[in-house]
């Protein structure tokens, strides 16, 4: 079963309904081959990974990696109506997430919840090995976190920050990915011991809080405007003084 956010109200950007999330998932799956698009759940994590970057990214920059993992361009003959509808839904979700994260410090992630009536899809042999030992909570959150990781791979500014708090927050998310090294397994074991997540609700809450923390940690850099010092225009000695006195420059401030 897929848990999805409710439509927003008031002046907030209109979020997607459950039906629109399902539609978006189908639209992304219809991306022309050989491109490899994200699905709706990975997209949700990817958008959050884009939002908390220490730099503002234009939509044209990150949209390419929605339709293809490697950012390959869509074919020239891609259906225009399909592209417009898909892009509209993606941008609406992005805008709703930006508003929710910045205004509320909270959002409803789109994650997969498996139960007896909705079992997880069958896995390939390699995937089974990779997920061996992962908790049920991490197995449900893994697709979302994989989308977030996709954003950090495409745009590495976040993971290249020399900030221990940022690295710790990212580790709290990456605990839900298959550990590939002894060091990663040690980090996961430490987090499980110090901050266990017994239920999916606890895991989702921790995920949301972590994204909000990352957003706060990178906010100043993301909206920093560099002050550019420009040279004053050159004024001739016989030109009017820029101070507005009406005198020639050489008879006013130019006499200093």
Proportion of helical residues = 40-55%
Structural class: mainly alpha
Mean of residue pLDDT? 85
Number of helices: 9
* Strand order, largest beta sheet: 1-2
The succession of helices and strands, N to C, reads: EHHHHEHHHHH
What share of the residues does DSSP label as strand, in percent? under 5%
| Main sheet record | 2 strands, antiparallel
Gross morphology: globular
Total DSSP E strands: 2
Low confidence ranges: 1-10, 227-233
Q: Provide the gyration radius in Å.
A: 24 Å
Notes on the protein architecture:
It is built from nine helices and two strands. It is mainly alpha-helical and 256 residues long. A two-stranded antiparallel ribbon has the order 1-2. The longest helix has 25 residues. The relative contact order is 0.13. The N terminus is likely disordered.
Mind sketching the topology for me?
Blueprint: E1 2-3, H1 18-29, H2 40-51, H3 59-67, H4 80-104, E2 111-112, H5 125-131, H6 136-154, H7 164-174, H8 182-194, H9 200-222
Antiparallel strand pairs: 1-2
Helix pairs in contact: 1-4, 2-4, 2-6, 7-9
């Amino acid at each position: 079963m897929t848990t999805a956010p409710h439509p927003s109200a008031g002046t907030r950007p209109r979020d997607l309904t459950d039906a629109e999330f399902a539609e978006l998932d189908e639209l992304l799956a219809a991306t022309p081959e050989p491109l490899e698009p994200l699905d709706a759940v990975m997209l949700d994590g990817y958008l959050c990974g884009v939002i908390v970057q220490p730099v503002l990214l234009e939509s044209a920059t990150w949209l390419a990696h929605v339709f293809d993992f490697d950012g390959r361009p869509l074919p020239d003959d891609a259906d225009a109506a399909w592209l417009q509808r898909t892009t509209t839904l993606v941008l609406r979700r992005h805008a709703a997430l930006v508003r929710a994260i910045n205004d509320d410090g909270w959002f409803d992630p789109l994650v997969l919840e498996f139960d007896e009536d909705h079992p997880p899809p069958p896995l390939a042999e390699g995937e089974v090995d990779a997920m061996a030992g992962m908790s049920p909570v991490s197995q449900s959150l893994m697709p979302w976190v994989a989308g977030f990781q996709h954003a950090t791979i495409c745009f590495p500014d976040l993971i290249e920050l020399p900030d221990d708090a940022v690295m710790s927050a990212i580790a709290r998310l990456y605990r839900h990915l298959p550990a590939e090294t002894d060091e990663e397994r040690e980090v996961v074991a430490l987090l499980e011991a110090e901050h266990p997540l017994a239920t999916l609700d606890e895991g989702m809450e921790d995920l949301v809080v972590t994204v909000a923390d990352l957003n706060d940690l990178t906010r100043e850099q993301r909206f920093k405007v560099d002050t550019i010092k420009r040279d004053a225009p050159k004024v001739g000695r016989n030109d009017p003084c820029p101070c507005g006195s009406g005198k020639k420059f050489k008879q006013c401030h130019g006499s200093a």
